[in-house]
Specification:
It is a single chain. The chain is an alpha+beta fold. It contains 9 helices and 34 strands. The strands form 7 sheets. Strands 11-16-17-14-13-12-15-18 form an 8-stranded mixed sheet. The longest helix is centred in the last third of the chain and has 22 residues. The protein is elongated, with a radius of gyration of 29 Å. The relative contact order is 0.11.
Length: about 650
């Protein structure tokens, strides 16, 4: 259908600035530059070229008559420009040929064009951080003749991985379904990570050994299927003492979008490249409720893992009963109620004030009680004695809150003797912990800790001290009785804060910083277990926790080499950079593996937007907080079931 315009023939001059940058894109080679005769018009395809940057870079060009497909006003924080495309193009596109769309940068100057207008544009061809554009002194001339309409391109996204540059700035509406792969940025930048197809992008070292061809193939696959659904702006959403909050697109209070939800593009979008990512931009800044995509999904049900004894692992995201306000800490995550939500840059790592703590505790209690494991190994609990408070004060508080919510004395805690721990001066402000249900299991003997390795020069000098306790089931067991099962709780050194030199620097193989330290920690635990098994009189051992290592990384190989196996291998507990993986694991000894009845990760946290956490309470225009188990942490809990008997 021809596109008509009611605008008079009028030349508009718009001044805009631009900075050049090279586009890096797999499969795209640089094209030679060429000059055009003065006063000649050029097609958008000639400006785009099929190389890494426009062959007309630095030249002032005038396009042939084109159609406006998207408009972004020049307000602060917006993209500041509009998009034009060659008439009659779109549909099933030959991506070996140059793109027929281009972004026109007008900056803070408000252009008067609208979607559907027919125009010719004069400006300087160039690149800005990987995006081909026209900029400089922009002149827009309305066109009076009828032009064939632009149709959205319909190519499958993954099929364009090597030639995506040749779809840049074109109108696009794929028929395929996507999955939500990342929700982290929706509250900060109004963007969601999407993945084409039925599988989510996975951390390469989750599925293959670091540096292997298989890991590289996974990384390439991740790139091929991934794209970011954006909101047509560069504006943030969070409140501050000087800035009003904004409503976040794509995320509703009634049905918040989560990783794994299906997604369908329902309105045409623009294929865009900004901030080192390929993006789908709406054709104008998004208005919440009018987004160009629809989502569907449901909460992940807790699996019935069976067994008379159920063991779980759960990183509870800095459960501190001592709050930052009490210690004069700096506050973070400003709330629209005029307070802050979390403590920053101090020894207290959790909530900023008591109201925040109560919101955090409500979620933590809901998650643990619904998880309903017999034994739970916890990570990131306040080490109260390090704050000059009674030992286990925070853990006792958590147990009391769990019992109050349950309506009976459901839980008890494992107290670790001081003789098993390193001196308080060498302890961390965060600790591991173990809680259990006395009606389901009985603790056998006293708890132990690897305190000897948590001092200067020890493997756990820079990580949390491993703890261990042995339990037998109060039910089942048969004529041979219930088998003692030792639970070893760990929290290895994180991947961040990389040293610049030495064995713990980030080597670039995907394992991050401090890998050598984590290998030493894994080795120390493996060497400790025979002592634990001897004391328990049983080789049935579950080694669990936050290992800060994906499944195929070097630290995990220490356990596999010693005969320990993953309880299950096809689950994830963490999402980072739009890729799923498990930093949290449960490893079982060969004898315990024979008793296992089931295992599963409960995906209630890692795939959720941080806006649902207590720490983001009322940071944007809508309040997403609900006092339930959803978004109780950034890690998912993990649970496995076991038969009680020795056979």
């Amino acid at each position: 259908m021809p596109v008509k315009s009611s605008k008079p023939s009028l030349r508009i001059r718009i001044a805009a600035a631009s900075t050049g940058a090279m586009l890096l894109c797999s499969g795209i080679a640089a094209a030679p530059a060429f000059a055009i005769p003065a006063n000649d018009t050029v097609s958008i395809a000639e400006i785009q070229g099929t190389g890494a940057e426009t062959p007309l870079k630095g030249q002032t060009v005038t396009t042939e008559p084109s159609i406006v497909t998207a408009v972004y006003p020049g307000d602060p924080g917006t993209l500041g420009g509009f998009v034009i495309q060659t008439p009659g193009t779109g549909g099933k596109v030959d991506t070996s040929k140059a793109s027929t769309g281009i972004f026109v940068y007008t900056g803070s100057t408000q252009s008067t064009v609208s979607v559907g207008d027919r125009v010719q544009v004069t400006g300087e061809a160039g690149e800005y951080r990987g995006l081909t554009q026209l900029a400089g002194n922009i002149e827009v001339t309305p066109v009076t003749e009828d032009l064939p309409a632009v149709q959205p391109a319909t190519n499958d996204w993954a099929s364009t991985a090597a030639t995506r540059e040749n779809l840049e700035s074109m109108l696009y509406k794929p028929k395929e379904k996507f999955q939500v792969a990342d929700t982290y940025g929706v509250g900060r930048y109004g963007e969601l990570g999407l993945a084409a197809g039925k599988e989510l992008p996975a951390q390469p070292t989750q599925v293959a050994r670091p540096g292997s061809a298989e890991a590289q193939a996974q990384a390439e696959r991740n790139s091929a299927i991934s794209v970011t659904l954006d909101d047509g702006t560069n504006r943030g959403f969070a409140a501050s003492p000087t800035q009003e909050p904004r409503q976040v697109p794509y995320l509703t209070r009634e049905d918040p979008v989560a990783v794994g939800d299906s997604a369908r593009i329902t309105e045409p979008v623009i294929v865009d490249y900004r901030f080192d990512k390929w993006r789908f931009q709406p054709t104008s800044p998004v208005v919440p409720g009018e987004e160009p995509a629809r989502f569907s999904g449901s909460a992940d049900p807790k699996s019935a893992v069976g067994g008379q004894m159920r063991i779980a692992s759960f990183n509870v995201l800095n459960y501190f009963t001592t709050v930052g306000q009490e210690k004069g800490c700096r506050g973070g995550n400003y709330s629209t109620d005029g307070t802050y939500n979390v403590a920053q840059n101090c020894d207290v790592r959790g909530a900023f004030d008591q109201a925040d703590f109560q919101r955090q505790q409500a979620k933590t209690v809901s998650a643990i009680n619904q998880l309903d494991a017999s034994v739970v190994g916890l990570m990131e609990v306040e080490n109260s004695v390090k704050l000059s408070e009674p030992k286990d004060e925070a853990l006792q508080n958590l147990v009391a809150a769990l019992n109050k919510a349950a309506g009976f004395k459901k839980w008890d805690l494992v107290s670790v003797p001081d003789s098993e721990l390193q001196p308080v001066a060498d302890q961390d402000f965060i600790t591991n912990a173990i809680i259990y249900q006395p009606k389901q299991v009985t603790q056998v003997g006293r708890a132990q800790a690897l305190g000897s390795e948590a001092v200067a020069g020890g493997a756990f000098e820079n990580a949390r001290t491993p703890l261990a306790a042995t339990f037998t089931s109060t039910k089942g067991g048969g004529k041979h009785g219930a088998a003692p099962t030792t639970v070893v709780v760990n929290h290895f050194k994180s991947k961040g804060s990389a040293p610049r030199t030495g064995p713990n620097r980030a080597s670039g193989d995907g394992q991050g910083a401090w890998n050598a330290a984590r290998v030493a920690q894994a080795s120390a635990v493996v060497n400790w277990i025979p002592e634990l098994s001897k004391a328990a009189g049983s080789e049935d051992v579950a080694v669990l926790g936050d290992f800060n290592s994906y499944a195929q990384e070097d630290p995990m190989q220490e356990f596999y080499g010693a005969g320990y196996a993953q309880a299950t291998e096809d689950d994830y507990t963490y999402v980072f950079g739009g890729q799923v993986g498990s930093l949290d694991h449960m490893l079982v000894s060969p004898s315990l593996k024979k008793r296992m009845t089931g295992a599963d990760a409960w995906n209630i946290n890692s795939g959720q937007s941080p806006l649902l956490q207590y720490s983001q309470y009322r940071t944007t225009a809508l309040d997403y907080y609900v006092a339930n188990e959803i978004a109780s942490s950034d890690h998912d809990p993990y649970i496995a079931g076991f038969r009680a008997g020795k056979k």
